[in-house]
Structures are given as C-alpha cells and as structure tokens.
Design brief:
The protein is mainly α. It has a domain at 46-159. Helices cover 58% and strands 0% of the residues. The protein is built from 6 helices and no strands. It has helices at 22-25, 38-64, 69-91, 94-120, 141-155, 158-161. α2 runs antiparallel to α5 (141-155), α3 (69-91) packs antiparallel against α4 (94-120) and α4 (94-120) packs antiparallel against α5 (141-155). The longest helix has 27 residues, at 38-64.
C-alpha cells in the first residue's frame, strides 16, 4: 500500500493569506518584489558598481595607499555600500529592503559629500575614486544611481512599511 502524497500547494499556510500577504510580497516572482522587472536592471547596475568599486579600491589600497589613504578608504567604503545595496535589493524581503534603503541613503550622502570635497580640496583626491567628482570616472552613474535606488525602494515601500502604513488599501496598485 502506498503512502498518500502531500501536495504542498494544497496545504494551508501563510502564502494562502491573500495576494498582499507580506510573504507573497517578499517572493522574487511577485511584482512588488524590488528585484522584479526593472528592479533586476537596478540590481545588475549595483552589482556591476560593487565589482568595479571593489576592484578599484583593492588595487588602490594595495599599490598606492600612501598617496591618498582617505580617498582610497572611501572607495572601499563605497564598494561595501554597493555590495550591501545589491544584496538587499536582490533579496527583496522586508528587512533586506530596509537595509538597502539605509545603504542607498548613505551612498547618496557619500557621493554628494565626496563629490563636493573632491572639487573643494582636490589635493585630498590625487587619483580618481568611485565618488570623486560625483562619479565622473563612471559616467556619473554613482550620482544618479542612489536617486534611482531610493525611488525604486519608495515605489515598493509596502515591503518596508507594510501595506497598512503606506496609506494604500492594497500593497500594489
């Protein structure tokens, strides 16, 4: 006699609690997930900048650290922030998106501050860094990206705040 088979799709659980249940919002195939649709492109750009910033900072710190230690450490910080933002946006869960929002906010402040300082005190930035001159060496992508990232997170704010706190009757309209 064979054992009865259980279909996990028929079992009641949190995923059966309606289309706007938080577990559904955090699923990568849900349209409200930050890594879905155009969010995949955003995650890819963050991932590319994470790789570029990591490579640049490792090279600068390993070979030229005595030239501009603060600038090169800021490149390393940018790399870490890009990695955190990439992972948070790609995972898309409530906590991950909150962490990504903090990382992207720090990124915005960093690129504005370092960009301004690199013009005001050019001797502190003898070599280009990821955020110097507002990301000029990267086609100003580091300047534009945090605005896009924060807009994308705001657009998917139901993941961060929950549907009831957004003022919308549904998580996604």
């Amino acid at each position: 006699m064979s054992e009865p088979t259980s279909n996990t799709h028929d079992a009641p659980g949190p995923r059966d609690s309606g289309p706007d249940h938080p577990d559904r919002l955090e699923h990568p195939d849900h349209p409200g997930h930050t890594g879905h649709g155009a969010g995949r492109l955003l995650v890819a750009v963050y991932g590319l900048l994470a790789l570029a910033a990591t490579g640049r900072s490792v090279l600068q710190i390993a070979l030229y650290f005595d030239r501009a230690p603060v600038a090169y450490l800021l490149s390393a910080l940018a790399a870490v922030i890009y990695i955190v933002a990439t992972v948070g946006l790609a995972r898309g869960g409530r906590t991950s998106v909150r962490v990504a929002a903090v990382a992207v906010s720090i990124e915005l402040v960093g690129v504005l501050l370092v960009g301004a300082l690199s013009y005001a005190i050019p001797e502190a930035f003898p070599d280009k860094t990821v955020w110097s001159h507002f990301g000029q060496g990267y086609g100003y992508v580091p300047l534009v990206l945090p605005f896009l990232g924060l807009w994308w997170i705001w657009r998917h704010r139901a993941l961060v705040t929950g549907p009831a706190e957004t003022g919308a009757p549904e998580a996604h309209r």
